[in-house]
Design brief:
The protein is α+β, with helices and mostly antiparallel strands. The protein is built from seven helices and nine strands. Helices cover about 30% and strands about 20% of the residues. Strand 4 and strand 5 form a beta hairpin.
Length: about 250
């Protein structure tokens, strides 16, 4: 009897969270006052997303990403696909650190490996640059562009939208592409994931699927608590209201 009551209570709580998030995202400014903090929306949304058996992204990563996502959405810079992609460079390159999330349907679409630039570090990326020929990754928010056929096959253009942080992405040819060195077999053979020239390269067996999901003005956020990035980014988690972000 005790087990049944606990199970029923958990089911009711999950249903309440899901319904609340739907209400938040559907009615937006019609429901909330201007001082309704985004952190409340972010927390409810984070709890409602179905990550299945995959590791959840860190909540602070998700919150930061959602802040930027809603600001970009409010200025009509994103498509209606509702895709948010996160890369957490605090994690080892030998672990899955790319999440592709469907915000509309509240579910994880992919969780996989991704590479960092060869001059950003070995197993951990700790150095970042916006300079051409640096061979380092750039942090921050990107808006995905069109696909094209390059030397790595189908690839995805990335527009870095943070001045002085990643706005040289196009000039540096920073794109998303598949690579043989992004695989468990490469890690097993060499002890770590392979590295790129700064591109967030993804596994060859998934790259077509990932690129198709992300293409066409979706949001990609690459994060590491780099002091220079944190001090310069215009996408601040503080003082962000639902009214300001979601209209």
């Amino acid at each position: 009897m005790h087990y049944f009551l606990i199970k029923t209570a958990l089911k009711i709580r999950r249903t309440w969270i899901f319904c609340t998030v739907i209400l938040l995202l559907t009615f937006k400014a019609h429901v909330f006052s201007s001082d309704y903090d985004l952190k409340e929306v972010a927390f409810l949304l984070y709890q409602s997303i179905d990550f299945a058996d995959s590791e959840r992204p860190a909540y602070d990563l998700f919150h930061r990403a959602l802040t930027g996502y809603y600001q970009l959405e409010s200025s009509n810079q994103l498509s209606e696909k509702g895709i948010l992609s996160l890369i957490d460079f605090r994690k080892s390159a030998n672990t899955k650190r790319l999440w592709v999330i469907d915000l509309k349907n509240k579910k994880l679409l992919l969780h996989t490996l991704t590479a960092h630039g060869r001059n950003s570090g070995e197993v951990f990326a700790t150095n970042f640059s916006n300079r051409p020929s640096s061979l380092q990754s750039s942090l921050g928010f990107y808006i995905t562009g069109d696909t094209y056929m390059g030397q790595h096959g189908i690839s995805l253009k990335l527009q870095g939208i943070e001045a002085g942080i990643n706005d040289q992405a196009e000039a540096r040819a920073i794109v998303m592409h598949g690579a043989d060195y992004v695989s468990d077999s490469y890690i097993k053979k060499f002890g770590r994931l392979g590295r790129s020239y700064g591109c967030p390269a993804v596994p060859m067996d998934l790259h077509k699927k990932i690129i198709k999901l992300l293409a066409g003005r979706t949001c990609l956020f690459i994060y590491y608590p780099d002091p220079d990035y944190v001090s310069k980014t215009r996408f601040n988690m503080l003082n962000t209201s639902v009214d300001a972000s979601l209209n």
